[in-house]
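Hello Y.,

Per our agreement to keep a running log of every chain we model this quarter, I'm adding this entry. I've kept the format consistent with earlier entries: sequence first, then predicted structure.
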Amino acid sequence: MVNIRDVASWFLSQDSMTHKKLQKLCYYAQAWYCALYDGSPLFEDEIQAWVHGPVVPSLYPVYADYKWIPIPKAEFDAGILEDKVLDVLEAVYNTYGELSGDQLESLTHSEEPWIQARGVLKPWETSTAPISCAAMREYYSKKYEQSQND
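Predicted structure for the entry above:
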């Protein structure tokens, strides 16, 4: 497993971005890693189904001061990460990196892992409900299989 801060730092080495976008990219990295590697998590930190989409609460205070201002691009030594981790991070960034934080929020709100974790909550109600690696694996492995059959 890798450290969530390393995952976030890798994404920030690609480009400057808002905290919301960074949180969603970290979510997608975890989700696709769980799907591609038989439910093994990329990082151990919990992801919760917050109002604005999936959030890693342990990462939140690290960048919270930026609010809606983009976090600056930063240097990162990718050599500390395994090739399979880099492959997932690159695939996630290539797939979702052009989307804004708001677009990623909307996308996660349309997908089963976030919807299931939220349950019957109203859209504005706060939640600390976790999004499990098992839920991510189930949903995104099906998406992967569908993409392979297209």
